[in-house]
Amino acid sequence: xxxxxxxxxxxxxxVAERAGVSPSTVSRTLRGLSTVSPQTRARVEKAARELSFxxxxxxxxxxTGRTGRVAVLVPNLDSWFLGAALAGxxxxxxxxxxxxLVYSVTTxxxxxxxxxALLVVSFALSPRERARLDDLGMPLVFVSQHEQGRAGVYVDxxxxxxxxxxxxxxxxxxxxxxxxxxxxxxxxWSSRARLDGYREALAxxxxxxxxxxxxxxxxxxxxxxxxxxxxLLSLAEPPTAVFAETDDIAFRLLTVLRGVNVPVPARMSxxxxxxxxxxxxxxxxxxxxxxxxxxEAAAELARQVIQDPAxxxxxxxxxxxxxxxxxxxxxxxxxxxxxxxxxxxxRNRG
Amino acid sequence: xxxxxxxxxxxxxxVAERAGVSPSTVSRTLRGLSTVSPQTRARVEKAARELSFxxxxxxxxxxTGRTGRVAVLVPNLDSWFLGAALAGxxxxxxxxxxxxLVYSVTTxxxxxxxxxALLVVSFALSPRERARLDDLGMPLVFVSQHEQGRAGVYVDxxxxxxxxxxxxxxxxxxxxxxxxxxxxxxxxWSSRARLDGYREALAxxxxxxxxxxxxxxxxxxxxxxxxxxxxLLSLAEPPTAVFAETDDIAFRLLTVLRGVNVPVPARMSxxxxxxxxxxxxxxxxxxxxxxxxxxEAAAELARQVIQDPAxxxxxxxxxxxxxxxxxxxxxxxxxxxxxxxxxxxxRNRG
DNA sequence: CTGAAAGCGCTTACAG
DNA sequence: CTGAAAGCGCTTACAG
Lengths: 350, 350
Prior knowledge:
The structure is a homodimer.
Chain A: H1 12-19, H2 23-30, H3 38-50, H4 57-64, E1 69-74, H5 80-95, E2 99-104, E3 117-121, H6 127-135, E4 140-143, E5 151-155, H7 157-170, E6 176-181, H8 188-204, E7 214-217, H9 224-233, E8 241-244, H10 247-259, E9 269-274, E10 285-288, H11 291-307, E11 316-319, E12 322-324, H12 342-349
Parallel strand pairs in A: 1-2, 1-3, 3-4, 4-5, 5-11, 6-7, 6-8, 8-9, 9-10
Antiparallel strand pairs in A: 10-12
Chain A binds a DNA duplex through helix 2 and helix 4.
């Protein structure tokens, strides 16, 4: 025997009886179908209210074949990005009448048939993993990554990194280091793209590629960042700016630079990427991803693919990344402020 | 017609047919009941595998009265604390065979009958709100707060704040300011408790209460923190240490102090509260809450109240808070290091 | 505009 | 150890 302690609540049949109508009519009324007379509707709604009726999704799922739920598969839950994305996602999903089921990748993948769509956030999927997801037999939406032929929402990391690098170039920097995470843990796609953007911008500006300036740093606390800084500062031509692939790396970098008495930005400019909530108190210039809006857009995509599964792969949303200049970046030491007078000055110099 | 584009997957009846047994037997096998012969079990499991069968929770919920889901009601999703708590909660729930449904409080409360238990995180509930939750008719578990007669998991904020304050006292500080958020947004309970702990420790140490040292600061970026610092620094006897009620406030305080050239900890010690992930890179001393373990403990409580709803109110778990000393705290300026020689020195002085 | 009947995919006594 | 039957609480054609 189950449920002696917890009252189970009224059923649709209870409401029907109280309102003096058939269950069919209650169902139609509660789903807002128009084919119900105003008087009947009023009676049913009153009865439902009096009984605090709440529909059982299990029962309706069984017959409609829809669960009213969206599963979200995330690589972690305690990162800034995921928090922001979920903060956008949850209300948007709920507003569309969908519940949000969250699965951390550390546990088993969400079982098929218990959600109407699966949102996959920020994963670098192996072909096998992707095949397994496809086998789940539910519409997929990818968040923060491209997947060929699959609905997805993401930012243009290449373009954003290009813009960030150009910003540093415009400040007069020519030696610009790049710090990437050794383990981009699920963000491999973005990681590649950002490095590409950095290189493209340098190439466009005619700056020679120097792989000595690109360093990998261990993912979280550890000596590796100090070592990277040591390498950079001991180059024949040390950098005057560092582009950190993530704000988290930038924060750690700022700490290290402060510790070794390299003033920022006087001697070293630091640019981050992400738009982490802490970037403002750190006064860190960064390329801000619209994480919340990525979540909102994902909710909208979920709604669409559920409604019309055939359009699966055709839906793509690309959101803009904004450069937010703050105090951690400044003109290159020794570089001239070549604002309007740039051309003239160049002549004078030459 | 629904589901033409997405294949619906095999049903339990399909598995039964393929294995040449009845649906009852498949059900018993898949739920691991022991009353199934080894041969039959093998046949059923093979058939299930071949058909990639996944059970429909909707269907089983309907008959068992259990959904296999736990709803989590959160005040926000993009805070450090909630990320960590969910990171502990989700895997623990999944490990117990439960799915996690997340509702942000900004949207409607979770409908009854669609989850087996409701976890309420960090809310200061009004009596009305609490009554509404009780009316939901599902077992409740409160996370990070006390509710009389309800299962809950939380830390002892009073004791933790007392310990933090004692730590500052032991460093020789006597003028210790306290910064509390103007809007504790859902953490009102903790907020009160922490202030109490601070006051108790001061009283125990015989330090006179001075409400001029207790300041409220606006919740997020804004001038109010600068104003609070201005007030403190212009007192006749300014503080030599500040106890910030949250790490977020402490981070902002460190930024302000740096900006106005007050060296930390030489002129001002700063102690936070929370164990925010950023406390380490900021080198902030703090009282670390075990947020992840709060989530894990909540999952365990959920399991228990589902299994035995009668024991609802009797289950309470109190988790420890640990002081993590770092570089932001040091001896009071002018105070002596009264380690082993404290007593002797006192004599010499006297 | 409304109702009676069938059925969604499972689990659960009840028999055997 | 296994199966036939009933039923969980809804929705959906089908009639009227």
